[in-house]
Amino acid sequence: MEKSCSLLVHFDKGTPALANEIKEALEGNDIPAKIDAMKNAVRLLLNGETLPQLFITIVRYVLPSEDHTVQKLLLLYLEIIGKTDAKGRVLPEMILICQNLRNNLQHPNEYIRGVTLRFLCRLSEVEIIEPLIPSIMSNLEHRNPYVRRSAILAVMSIYKLEHGEQLLVDAPETIERFLSTEQDPSAKRNAFLMLFNCAQDRAVNYLLTNVDKVPDWGELLQMVVLELIRKVCRTNKGEKGKYMKIILSLLNAPSAAVVYECAGTLVSLSSAPTAIRAAASTYCQLLLSQSDNNVKLIVLDRLNELKSSHKEIMVDMIMDVLRALSSPNLDIRRKTLDIVLELITPRNVNEVVLTLKKEVVKTQSGELEKNGEYRQMLIQAIHSCAIKFPEVASTVVHLLMDFLGDSNIASAMDVVVFVREIIETNPKLRVSIITRLLDTFYQIRAARVCCCALWIIAEYCLSLSEVESGIATIKQCLGDLPFFSISEDDEAADSSKKAQQATSITISSRRPAILADGTYATQSAASETAFSTPAVVQGSLNTGNLRSLLLTGDFFLGAVVACSLSKLILRLEEVQPSKIEVNKASTNALLVMVAMVQLGQSSVLPHPIDNDSYERIVLCIRLLCNPVDAVRKIWLKSCRESFVKMLSDKQLRETEEIKAKAQTTHSQPDDLIDFYHLKSRKGMSLLELEDQVQDDLKRATGEFIKDADDATKLNRIIQLTGFSDPVYAEAYVTVHHYDIVLDVTVINRTKDTLQNLCLELATMGDLKLVERPQNYTLAPESSKQIKANIKVSSTETGVIFGNIVYETSNVFERTVVVLNDIHIDIMDYISPAVCSDAAFRTMWAEFEWENKVAVNTTITNEREFIDHIIKSTNMRCLTALSALEGDCGFLAANLYAKSVFGEDALVNISVEKQGDGKLNGYIRIRSKTQGIALSLGDKITLKQKGGI
Fold first, then answer.
1. This model's pTM is above 0.90
2. Which region holds residue 705: left if phi is over 0, alpha if psi is between -120 and 50, else beta?
3. 870, 938 Cβ separation under 8 angstroms
């Protein structure tokens, strides 16, 4: 049988002290040596040693010691030694200890009295405690508060024992009298705690008698009062009205801990708008007054919970919550913005956006190192506001366009994507946005931002002046043509030839090479030639942003420039009456494209132009040389139509998500309806009245109905043994976020009594058993419920296996029944989540674990296959529905989910229909940890055939 342990001490098992050495040290007169010996004795006892020979030595040489440290160690020793025999009777030598404990309880020193009383709190042997009762009770009147509060704890512990009420018959009355006269806050708290645990009615009576004094009580006592209120109201909901006044009075307490607990108690006990508003206001005050970041994050979590259940009240608190942005911590700022964005309404959007604009301006100071990341968060928040409420876009778009040239590329990218969306959804802002964009285009330094800005310029420059300004801006940023001189190219070519001749050496090597799909292959070469770096282009890196980026070898940007110029020239043909001007502009554009192709094919850059970019530029050249009406329509109209469709799909998805969140359960047809207007209002305060109304509303909308019904429970029952086994066992598995509870029913199907029956479990994966198995005795044809707790530390498929072992009276050997394995499904830990495409790509590049699963399925339709994978893996498809439509024979989609441990799971599906109608391709899974990647891969492999 396991013993209870109230003491834990670290012990390094290097060279354990011998019992004889300890005995010698204890018998000597050297106090420091005696202290070390006692410490060693305690450590050895805690690690399983018995040391029976030391007891008499300690009684003779340690009991009489006057040293306080020795006396403290003696009490620790007495706490952990075995005080009973095999039958549970107190050992006779323990009587020797009683006199010493009585002397300690009457000792003139307060410390000795206090530590002895604390020792008695952890003693459970009634035979030892009984003679000490008078001495313990006399300490309740000691002059020192330390002794008094320790005495109260001792009384409480003794009263809680099995026969404690017989030992201390009048303890509750004594403590109640003590409470009315005591002045020390800690002693009062301990006394009230004793009544709370042992005589709840007396605690309630004392509280209601002293209602007006509660705000003046100490912090510790107020915390116990709140705990008592929660306990009483949970058991008797009709009592809530009495205690609301106390809770509301404690909201103004000076202690932050009491105020926080008060707010939590209000929310848990009442749904009345007045109570919720008071709690929310309290949380907002704590958010501003507390300097500890952990406290702020906890308070924000509470506000987030309030937002989910009482959104209409939280909307009024939005500006108070926003003040938390003054904290420099990014996690606090991110959580604050997440809460605020869900509370925005047409009434408060202008105030919120104004605050966000001020914060954006503050980030320009550059004092904090993470200003760029914070600015990106603010820009995304403003973007979200402007999409929901287009009328605010005009107030922010021009301010944000100042950050197109931001050194933080992610932040600049968010701005340009925001501008692209706003210019389409707000036609009135088109002219001002285009004008501003053309003025600030030269400041953009990131290639990705340039690409998006060029698309906006080419798509939304509609009038003659705008088109001409767009072409002029692009030409200005490209600088003078050509991008390199012929002499530079010849020199670079000559120098590269000389360097090649000089550095060409023969190397015999055999080493692994990484192929395009990420796999390894062995590369064997008889000779490899090392080439020197060609000459760098001189002199043209500081002229324009497009020129600088092109000269670094970014030919994808070159292809975007060519497409933008082509689109502008095609539009110029529509708005410019003069053919001469059109031809002139077209010729200049062709010169730019040809110059880019020349640059890509020259040797002045270390890398030549890629095939895709080359083909796109050549396509633009052909288009300008021979424009066709059908192609012109595609370039000028179809592109815009595709973008509009993408935006509408995005808006549709967001609307569907909001609708899904807003759906609430409704009450059953035969549920009781309680008519509020027919109720008696006599003697009810406004708060009680509001609370009853809210309870009625919750009942009407089905919020009190439990989620899990009996039908779903049956799905989680797993049979562990066969029907023919002597012991039948089945388990009901409950999966919480961080632990698994197995409720195992064991039935004895024999006519014999099963002795020492034990459920032995073991785990595989990141699962850990919490408790040791216990032995049970099972009568013939009886059953037993056994609970087992298993901790989960990561998102990984785990296996629980084990057996049931028992003995019978007529068989001397132990019988073992092997149990079926219980597989813990990864699907219990991951849930669908949403992230932006940019965030998905960033995580895809960062995550190091990848699991590549080949498609092997009987499903022949690409869309049907992806739907099946989404359903099987409990993930969300991030790819727009419009992108999955059509019948082109291949399909790619991104899926995303998040685990309860905060891990991200990314999946990319790429499938192609073969000539024989079968699907072929790969499913790639990426995550930060190995477990989730492997477990998801196994799940997909199992489920992808569609038949399982």
1. no
2. beta
3. no
**696-705: Cβ within 8 A, 24+ apart:** 698/271, 699/667, 699/671, 699/672, 699/674, 700/667, 700/673, 701/664, 701/665, 701/666, 701/667, 702/664, 702/665, 702/666, 702/667, 702/668, 703/664, 703/665, 705/665, 705/667, 705/668
Name the nearest CA neighbour of 190 among 230, 168, 221: 221
Residue 84 has what DSSP assignment? B
Quote the tokens at residue 49. 């040693």
**3-state class of 600 per DSSP?**
helix
* Per-residue three-class SS string for 297-356: HHHHHHHHHHHHHCHHHHHCCHHHHHHHHHCCCHHHHHHHHHHHHCCCCCCCHHHHHHHH
pLDDT of 665 higher than 60 = no
Residue 30 CB contacts under 8 Å (≥ 6 apart), including other chains: none
Residue 807 contacts by C-beta under 8 Å, 6 or more apart in sequence?
Answer: 754, 755, 756, 814, 815
- For residues 446 and 407, the answer to whether their CB atoms sit within 8 Å is no
Q: 856 phi and psi, to 5 degrees? A: -145, 90
Single-letter code of the amino acid located at 118 = R
The whole-number average pLDDT for the span 606-628 is 88
Nearest by Cα to 662 from 349, 267, 311, 251: 311
**What confidence score (pLDDT) does residue 507 get?**
34
- What is the rounded distance in angstroms from the CA atom of residue 340 to the CA atom of residue 351? 12
The tens digit of pLDDT for each residue in 447-458 reads 888 999 999 999
pLDDT at 194 over 70: yes
Decide: residue 743, CB within 10 A, 0-12 exposed, 13-18 middle, 19+ buried: middle
Q: Please provide the size of the chain in residues.
A: 948
> Considering just the CA atoms, what is the radius of gyration of the chain in Å?
39
Cis geometry, peptide bond prior to residue 482 (ω within 30 degrees of 0)? yes
Cα–Cα distance between 54 and 611 in angstroms, integer? 88
Interatomic CA distance for residues 398 and 339, integer angstroms: 26
